[in-house]
Amino acid sequence: MAAGTPIPPHSPTPGPPSVPRAEGTADVLVVGAGPTGLLIAGDLAAAGHDVTLVERRAASVGNLTRALVVHARTLEYLDARGLADELVSRGHRVRELRLFGHATIRPTRLASRFPYVLVIGQYEVERLLERRAREAGVTFRYGTEVTGLRQDGGGVEADVRPAPGGRGRSGATVSDAAREDGSARTVRARYLIGADGVHSTVRGCLGLPFPGTSVIRSIVLADVRLAEPPSTPFELDAIDNAFALVGSFGDGWYRVMGWNRDRQLPDSAPADLAEVRDFTRLALGTDFGMHSPRWISRFHSDERQAPHYRVGRVFLAGDAAHVHSPAGGMGMNTGLQDAANLSWKLSAVLRRHAPTALLDTYERERHPVGTMVLRTSGSLLRLALAGNAPLRALRSAAA
Ligand SMILES: Cc1cc2nc3c(=O)[nH]c(=O)nc-3n(C[C@H](O)[C@H](O)[C@H](O)COP(=O)(O)OP(=O)(O)OC[C@H]3O[C@@H](n4cnc5c(N)ncnc54)[C@H](O)[C@@H]3O)c2cc1C
Q1: How far apart, in whole angstroms, are the C-alpha atoms of residue 320 and residue 196?
Q2: Phi and psi dihedrals of 26, rounded to 5?
Q3: Which residue's CA is minimally distant from atom 21 of ligand 1?
Q4: pLDDT, tens digit, for every residue of 387-399?
Q5: Strand partners for 226
Q6: Is residue 300 within 8 Å of residue 218, measured between CB atoms?
Q7: Cβ of 87 less than 6 Å from ligand 1
Q8: Which of 190, 229, 275, 290 has CA 20 to 30 A from 172's CA?
Q9: Exposed (0-12), middle (13-18) or buried (19+): which is 72, by Cβ within 10 Å?
Q10: Is the distance from the beta carbon of residue 246 to the nearest atom of ligand 1 less than 6 Å?
């Protein structure tokens, strides 16, 4: 759905409160407290369902961010839940993006209440969604991981255990008993959602492959301060052997991300500010006087998609279902839109307001969207990486 098509307000009509359940059971078990899992869990709990969310990480949201943009359509979904204005007030509204030297993209033409790209740390999105999920009554189990699952006609049984080194941040965890006697235990739910990211255990338990390829390696990102910031809040440019983007978070921090064809190293090789300065100078002509990095990381990027998003009572959403390069800033956005598509359907089926066949429409609608996002992101990336003259000419024409 394009930005602008009205999204009805998300106004769950809770039925009678869920019958209190035995410890270790839930209507829905969500695996993974990233943005995707947090939105699904919050939607379902707001609709009156009994939701347990299991997260391997010990603590909740940190302050490092992978995603840095939220697009108009995602803001419209958050708006339908009464969440957009708060997020927008914390982010930086970017109304002009400069790409490849010549092109200026102005989202101001979008027919949306949010005619801009919101630059904001992923952690702000997660904090907001976590708070909303807690208020709606989701039972959080940090420091706990799912290791296996089985399903039958009536539900799904997941094996959970304390995550290595994990220690729940608050409240008792499903695995408290396990902590004492060292044993794993199970949680039973009517449905399970695998929002457990790119290395999804749930996907593995379903026996689903994750076909695709690695498309780029040795991308380096850094969050830095700039002594001489650029005139536009978001700039991306590329030359033959390098590309770089600089985006402002709006609070004095800048995300710099880039790549240098002549410096291809494994993810484990440390990256430093000198390397970030180098590729920024190559691609953008200056390093903007960058200093004081709070985070520098080297990573590679894959393009992969699971062949199915549903197997019986188990669903995949977000990075567990699809992954692509950061080009276009679409990963978190796509996961949040998967979540918004699935949660109301699952609620309607749990309440017996709709036949279970409605659940089939989740994969039918979201799988093609995932495929399209992989293609779009892949095309943008290939343009940025263009190493030969015809491709660079195509890039200029496209710009
Ligand atoms: C450099 C970079 C820049 C990016 N920029 C953007 C951008 O601008 N815009 C955008 O939309 N996207 C962007 N993305 C992508 C975005 O970060 C991801 O798409 C998003 O985090 C996916 O959310 P998720 O909830 O599906 O998965 P995740 O955020 O990966 O969350 C999965 C969670 O599951 C937990 N987990 C895993 N296994 C288990 C288990 N067995 N049991 C319990 N818990 C488990 C993990 O600890 C994790 O917390 C970027 C990514 C990168 C790397």
Answers
A1: 6
A2: -160, 160
A3: 332
A4: 777 777 777 777 6
A5: 290
A6: yes
A7: no
A8: 190
A9: buried
A10: no
Residue 334, CB half-sphere, CA atoms under 13 Å: how many?
29
d(CA 310, CA 55): 21
| Total count of residues recorded for the chain | 399
Residue type, 371: T
Mutation to probe ligand 1, out of 66, 71, 198, 210 (largest number of atoms < 8 A from CB): 66
Cβ neighbours for 352, distance < 8 A, ≥ 6 positions apart: none
Distance CA 364, CA 26 (A): 26
At CB < 8 A and 24+ separation, what contacts does 230-235 make? Answer: 230/284, 230/288, 232/96, 232/97, 232/98, 233/92, 233/94, 233/96, 233/119, 234/94, 234/96, 234/97, 234/98, 234/117, 234/119, 235/97, 235/98, 235/284
Summarize the chain as % helix, strand, coil (round to 5). Answer: 35, 30, 40
| DSSP three-state, residue 348 | helix
Please give the share of the chain, as a percent, with pLDDT higher than 90: 65
Q: What is the pTM of this model?
A: 0.90
Which regions of the chain does DSSP assign to beta strands (E)?
25-31, 51-55, 69-70, 92-94, 97-99, 103-105, 117-119, 139-142, 144-151, 156-162, 185-194, 212-226, 234-238, 242-248, 254-260, 290-305, 310-311, 314-316, 322-323
- pLDDT tens by residue, 247-256: 988 889 999 9
3-state SS, residue 70: strand
φ, ψ of residue 115 in degrees (nearest 5): -85, 60
3-state SS class at 98:
strand
The position carrying tokens 């106004």 is 11
Q: Are 91 and 124 in contact (CB under 8 A)?
A: yes
* Phi/psi of residue 217, nearest 5 degrees: -125, 165
pLDDT tens figures, 194-248: 999 999 999 999 999 999 999 889 999 999 999 999 988 888 888 878 999 999 8
Q: Which pair of tokens denotes residue 351?
A: 């309440």
